[in-house]
């Protein structure tokens, strides 16, 4: 079924949110990067549901002014909390970023199916989705930049430094 709305991503999320959520969570659970020692399926599903819902609302209500407008506040707030919570749980920045980026495959596949007859619309929708998700991911990474640990040490190379960084985040 083709998407009728000019905002293809918003239409897709409105129509297929439950299926996208199930596909996304299944892919996250099957990924070799899953940290089942740090997060349970129920919490992962809740975070995924919350992000998709906030994203859908923002896409439906926002103009094309970018993700820094007020309509995107719930998405930014969610990502701020997700980043803080995951850092406290012991997730690495890459593992946290993977959460946002992992939605691309389920979204892109559905966009491709919905817009297969219109290459221009598909190209535009994929670019918009990529740009949006990259901006969302950047928001989370910006939050991690200023966590107070010694900036002149590479904490990834030392278990002791990793522990000190975690303690700095947990405050």
Question: How does this structure look, described?
Answer:
With 171 residues, the protein is mainly α. 70% of the residues lie in helices and 0% in strands. It has seven helices and no strands. Helix 1 packs across helix 5, helix 2 packs antiparallel against helix 3 and helix 4 runs antiparallel to helix 6. It is elongated, with a radius of gyration of 17 Å. The chain starts with 7 loop residues before the first helix and ends with a helix. The N terminus is likely disordered.
Give the fraction of residues assigned to helices: over 70%
The helix-and-strand class reads mainly alpha
Q: Measured on Cα atoms, how large is the radius of gyration?
A: 17 Å
Mean pLDDT: 82
The SSE order reads HHHHHHH
- Total number of beta strands: 0
Low-confidence stretches: 1-6
Q: Span from first to last CA?
A: 50 Å
Kindly estimate the percentage of residues that lie in beta strands according to DSSP: under 5%
Number of helices in the DSSP assignment: 7
What gross morphology would you assign?
elongated
Keywords:
171 residues; mainly alpha; 7 helices; elongated
Summary, kept brief:
By secondary structure, the protein is mostly helical. It has seven helices and no strands.
Helix/strand layout:
Layout: H1 8-30, H2 41-61, H3 73-89, H4 93-101, H5 104-114, H6 119-145, H7 159-170
